[in-house]
Amino acid sequence: MGLTPLAAFEHSMSRSLWAEAYVIDGEVAAIVGLAVDSILAGIGSPWLLTGRPVDRHPKLFLQQTRRGLARMSAEFPVLVNQVHAEYTGAIRWLRWLGFEIGPAKPYGPKGEPFCRAVWRKGLHIGPTTIADIEAAPNLGALSEEFATESLAPGLPRTAPNWAAYRGLEAAGMLHPIAARLDGVLIGFIGVLLAPLPRHSVPVATTERFFVARAHRKTGAGLKLLRAAEAKARALGSPGLQVTAPFKGDLFQVLPRVGYRETNRVFFKPLEAA
Question: pLDDT tens digits for 135-182?
């Protein structure tokens, strides 16, 4: 907007429904407010200024901003704002809160790189990034549940190589999709598109398709699968291959939603020579 810091603060205050200060030991640690982006669309625009006490009390800051997010989401189902692409600390914090971070794009009168940060209430299925999945506070629990459920006799326990996933994503071969409930990651699916020598065209297959058992009745699994199908179609794949643990929940569901069994994978553990 080309405003000075003070003018930008005054502008945010003038647009806000409310604003409040976090004070620690008599010193202002942060000022947070909620502005209206669109009343008809139900979109709010949160903003935040921080001071040095935040660096000294990071855990308290995280706790308070989590409570602030709950207050904001009670007023707007969608929260949107921009964050500077080079402000990595703020991006990590927003991802921790459950915001989805878009790609850097020129923004403002100087055309500096900013990322659109979006938080949605309720169940949302949509494209995401490996970085957003990695930043989910509950990723450890999700990964553990996934590893236990997908464990096959003789195969090593799954241990994702996130650097490899980021490399595939950067190469345009991996397209992750997430399921979030009130900003919390509850499931994910990856659409992996790679050339196969036996086919004349790339064929899409799923990678790490999982929804936490506690949230399977939300319909997130089927919605993730449909989103993956749409992505595979857009990428020009003739179909979508889905792997499922034998006789598991997904194995039982797939034939009911249009998939047919085409192959079975056999595995034999090999002893070291």
Answer: 999 999 999 999 888 877 777 888 889 999 999 999 999 999 999 999
User: CA quadruple 2, 93, 210, 194: dihedral positive or negative?
Assistant: positive
Are residues 241 and 139 located together in one domain of the fold? yes
Give the residue from 102, 121, 140 where a domain finishes: 121
Judgement on whether residues 52 and 69 belong to the same structural domain of the protein: yes
d(CA 26, CA 99): 30
**DSSP string over the chain:** ----HHHHHHHHHHHEEEEEEEEETTEEEEEEEEEEEETTTTEEEEEEEE-THHHH-HHHHHHHHHHHHHHHHTT-SEEEEEEETT-HHHHHHHHHHT-EE---EEETTTTEEEEEEEEESSEEEEE--HHHHHH-TTHHHHHHHHHHHH--TTSPPP---HHHHHHHHHTT-EEEEEEEETTEEEEEEEEEEE--TTSSS-EEEEEEEEE-GGGGGGTHHHHHHHHHHHHHHHTT-S-EE----TTSHHHHHGGGGT---------------
pLDDT of residue 75: 93
Pairwise pLDDT comparison (146 vs 199), residue with the higher score: 146
Do residue 129 and residue 237 come from a single domain?
Answer: yes
> Do 195 and 228 belong together in one domain?
yes
Q: Are residues 178 and 117 in the same domain?
A: no
When divided into structural domains, the chain yields a total of 2
Q: Which of 88, 121, 154 is the last residue in one of the domains?
A: 121
**Alpha carbons 50 and 194: distance in angstroms, whole number:** 45
Domain that includes residue 133, residue range: 123-259
